[in-house]
Design a protein that fits this description.
This protein is of the alpha/beta class. It contains 7 helices and 10 strands. It folds into 2 domains: 5-136, 3-Layer(aba) Sandwich (Rossmann fold); 181-274, PAS domain (Beta-Lactamase), CATH 3.30.450. The protein has helices at 14-23, 38-47, 65-75, 90-100, 112-180, 199-205, 223-235; strands at 5-10, 30-35, 53-56, 80-85, 104-107, 184-188, 194-197, 237-244, 247-255, 264-274. α2 packs parallel to α3 and α3 packs parallel to α4.
């Protein structure tokens, strides 16, 4: 034990209290307190609520042992309560158990060795229950922390979800805007793969009405536009007119944000006049 354990003995006979004090005189791990009445015992408990074990006589004037221990249980339920009495009526034992919630009923006269063992067991029970209460408090605190963390995580997930939904809506709106433009927009990465194409560009360039993202430019784009792309790669930007099928277009190309590593952006502006049939 790292600290002394306080034990309160309550008996209206001073000689009994002296005998009990002498019995535990050599036990440094115990601090023995004594009271000659239930009222005095309650005053000591109010002053020193860290008392772990309470041992009370059964027959006392004004407040008997059961009444006293019932009040102790009401005020300090964490204490271990023992009745020590020469009155061994079965009904009294039952009353003490039911009303005072006692740990043990020890008859007088007691056997010193047995009483020492009973007190040691009561102290061990008190310390174990205190340890369990501390563990429950720690577990409850950790559970509360976990609940708080879960709530915060749920908020973050909700915020993240809302952010992703907003981003998706913005991207979809941007795609819808690009698709509604009367000019073609074509994005090409550094590996010459088509990474973006709007509806107007598909109408101008697709032979079969479809171009899939990720496909190579040489698989879909006309020779004139392929040559224009090579010119943009060499010069960084260019503008040129050429025919896409029957449509005359003005092509403008440059590196995205001026960064060669990010690929090319090509715009195709249809001219009003069309290429005359030969």
């Amino acid at each position: 034990m790292t600290a002394t354990v306080k034990i309160l003995f309550v008996d209206d006979e001073p000689n009994v209290l002296k005998a009990l004090r002498r019995l535990f005189l050599d036990y440094d791990q115990y601090e023995v307190l004594c009271a000659t009445s239930g009222g005095e015992g309650l005053e000591l408990l109010a002053q020193q609520p860290d008392i772990r074990v309470v041992v009370s006589d059964y027959r006392m004037p004004q407040m008997n042992g059961v009444e006293f221990l019932r009040e102790v249980n009401s005020r300090l339920p964490q204490t271990v309560r023992i009745v020590l009495s020469g009155f061994a009526d079965a009904a009294a034992v039952v009353e003490a158990i039911n009303v005072g919630h006692i740990y043990k009923f020890i008859p007088k006269p007691w056997n010193d060795d047995e009483l020492r063992i009973d007190i040691a067991n009561a102290v061990e029970t008190a310390l174990l229950e205190e340890s369990n209460r501390q563990l429950r408090r720690e577990l409850e605190a950790r559970n509360n922390d976990l609940l708080t963390m879960n709530r915060e995580l749920e908020k973050l997930v909700q915020q993240r979800t809302e952010s992703l939904q907003l981003r998706s809506q913005v991207l979809q709106l941007a795609q819808d805007i690009l698709d509604s433009l009367p000019i073609g927009v074509l994005g090409i990465d550094r590996d010459e793969q088509i990474v973006h194409i709007n509806s107007c560009a598909i109408r101008l360039l697709a032979r079969d009405g479809r171009i899939l993202l990720g496909e190579k430019v040489e698989d879909h784009l006309p020779t004139g536009l392929l040559a224009f792309i090579e010119q943009v790669k060499l010069t960084g930007s260019a503008t040129e007119e050429f025919g896409c099928g029957q449509q005359l277009v003005t092509a403008t190309g440059s590196f995205l944000d001026g960064d060669r590593r990010r690929g090319l952006i090509i715009t195709l502006t249809p001219r009003r006049e069309r290429i005359a049939n030969p």
